[in-house]
Amino acid sequence: MKHLTDQKIVSNALAAIVLILVTITLVATNHAVAQKAQQPNFIVIFTDDQGYGDVGCFGHPTIKTPNLDRMAHEGQKWTSFYVAANVCTPSRAALMTGRLPIRSGMFSDKRRVLFPDSDDGLPQSEITIARHLKKKGYRTAAIGKWHLGHLPAYLPTSHGFDSYLGIPYSNDMDKVNDVDRKVAFGESKIEYFQVPLLRDTTEIQRPADQNTIVKRYTEEAIKIIQKNKKEPNAARPFFLYMAHSLPHVPLFASKDFLGTSKRGLYGDVIEEIDWSVGQILSTLKKEGLDKNTYVVFTSDNGPWAIFNEQGGSSGLLFGNKGTSYEGGVRVPTIFWGPGRVKPGVVSDMGSTLDLLPTFGKLAGIPLPTDRIYDGYDLSEVLHKGAASPRDEMYYYHGSHLFAARKGAYKLLYYQNNPLGYPEKLEKLDKHQLFNLLHDPSEKYDLADEHPEVIREIEAMVAKHREKATPAATHLEARIGQK
Question: What are the angstrom distances between the C-alpha of 4 and each of 1, 8, 11, 128?
Answer without folding.
Answer: 5, 6, 10, 72
